[in-house]
């Protein structure tokens, strides 16, 4: 595996592979089994697997959240390498947002509800960085987790609206033994908070919004809603102490 830090280096590394199948897995690092499932799927389906590792400042509204985001590059490098990743792209913020940067992608309606209400500007940052990564890597396929169902819906819309030529592959949410969806943010939970957080997957597993709201009564709930994404999901966001957790279950189809 090669670790590259600049866009020019990444483009140069990909140049000999332009006639092959290229897979892109955009990430913010702090890898867990959920990420590894994306790396493995990409490895099975493409000739060249590119993973980006970039804690994207544009999708964080609060400095404390950005600065507190877990980072351990050496560990991530080892995990990506073991999963068969070919190129790990870990740029500095100035590489992605050089001075003078001022062009943004806003998926207006889909990006402004649910998470968008509680994290204004979040999906503008996500869509913009993903479009940049897609333009740099020019993959045939990009891989995302179903856990971020609204992110998937926003990116699907962007791909459609901007005529991007790639397939979006969505992999099932990976959960711990206690049902909690794997997330880099779980590391911030104290044992007592983790115990309380378990009511999130338990509530969603009812697949009933009203029942889920009742079961989440003890937590600080941002929303519990049925969302008409593809597929339709019951989705929720809660705060446990200082940690904000999101999760969803699919209400139809057999993807999860
Ligand atoms: O899901 C994430 O980790 C991020 O939102 C993404 C897609 C890598 C964009 O920064």
**Number of DSSP strand runs:** 9
Described by strand count, sense and barrel closure, the largest sheet is: 6 strands, parallel
Low-confidence stretches: none
Number of individual domains: 2
Q: Give the % helix.
A: 25-40%
Q: Helix/strand/pairing class, anyone?
A: alpha/beta
- Please list the strands of the largest sheet in the order they lie side by side: 1-4-3-2-5-6
Count the helices. How many? 11
Mean pLDDT: 97
How much β-strand is present in the residues? 15-25%
| Radius of gyration from the alpha-carbon trace, in angstroms | 18 Å
> CATH top level of the largest domain?
Alpha Beta
Q: Which term fits the overall shape?
A: globular
Give the name of the CATH architecture of the largest domain. 3-Layer(aba) Sandwich
Instruction: Output the helix-strand order.
Output: EHEHEHHEHHHEHEHHHEEE
CATH topology of the largest domain: Rossmann fold
Strand-helix topology:
Layout: E1 2-4, H1 7-14, E2 22-27, H2 33-45, E3 48-53, H3 63-67, H4 73-82, E4 87-89, H5 93-96, H6 115-118, H7 122-137, E5 141-145, H8 149-161, E6 167-171, H9 191-197, H10 199-204, H11 209-215, E7 220-227, E8 233-240, E9 243-250
Parallel strand pairs: 1-4, 2-3, 2-5, 3-4, 5-6
Antiparallel strand pairs: 7-8, 8-9
Helix pairs in contact: 7-8
Protein described:
With 256 residues, the chain is an alpha/beta fold. It folds into two domains: 2-171, HUPs (Rossmann fold, 3-Layer(aba) Sandwich); 184-246, 2-Layer Sandwich (Pantoate--beta-alanine Ligase, Chain: A,domain 2). Helices cover 36% and strands 20% of the residues. The protein is built from eleven helices and nine strands. The protein has helices at residues 7-14, 33-45, 63-67, 73-82, 93-96, 115-118, 122-137, 149-161, 191-197, 199-204, 209-215, and strands at residues 2-4, 22-27, 48-53, 87-89, 141-145, 167-171, 220-227, 233-240, 243-250. The strands form two sheets. Strands 1-4-3-2-5-6 form a six-stranded parallel beta sheet, sandwiched between helices. Strands 7-8-9 form a three-stranded antiparallel beta sheet. Helix 7 (122-137) crosses helix 8 (149-161). The radius of gyration is 18 Å and the shape is globular. The two termini are 31 Å apart.
């Amino acid at each position: 595996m090669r670790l590259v830090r600049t866009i020019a280096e990444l483009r140069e590394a990909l140049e000999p592979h332009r006639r092959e199948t290229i897979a892109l897995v955009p990430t913010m690092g702090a890898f867990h089994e959920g990420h590894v499932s994306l790396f493995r799927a990409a490895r099975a389906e493409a000739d060249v697997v590119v993973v980006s590792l970039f804690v994207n400042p544009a999708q964080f509204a609060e400095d404390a959240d950005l600065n507190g985001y877990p980072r351990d590059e050496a560990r991530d490098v080892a995990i990506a390498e073991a999963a068969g990743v070919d190129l790990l792209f870990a740029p500095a913020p100035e590489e992605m947002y050089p001075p003078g940067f001022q062009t943004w992608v806003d998926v207006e309606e889909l990006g402004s509800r649910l998470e968008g209400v509680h994290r204004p500007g979040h999906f503008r940052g996500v869509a913009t960085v993903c479009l940049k990564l897609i333009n740099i890597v020019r993959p045939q396929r990009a891989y995302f987790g179903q856990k971020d169902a609204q992110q998937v819906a926003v990116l699907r819309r962007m791909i459609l609206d901007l005529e991007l030529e790639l397939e979006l592959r969505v992999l099932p949410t990976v959960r711990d033994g206690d049902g909690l969806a794997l997330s880099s943010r779980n590391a911030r939970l104290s044992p007592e908070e983790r115990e309380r957080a378990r009511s999130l997957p338990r509530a969603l597993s009812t697949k009933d919004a009203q029942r889920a709201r009742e079961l989440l009564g003890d937590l600080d709930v941002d929303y519990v809603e049925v969302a008409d994404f593809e597929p339709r999901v019951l989705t929720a966001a809660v705060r446990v102490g200082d940690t904000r957790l999101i999760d969803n279950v699919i209400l139809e189809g057999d993807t999860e």
